[in-house]
Amino acid sequence: MIGFNSTALIEAILAKKKILVPMFGVNKIRFKKKYILDFQKCVFEVNNVKRFEILLHNIINDKSKKKTSFRKSNAVIANYIGNLDGKSSQRLLKNII
Question: Phi/psi class of residue 48: alpha, beta or left (left: φ > 0; alpha: ψ in -120 to 50)?
Answer without folding.
Answer: beta
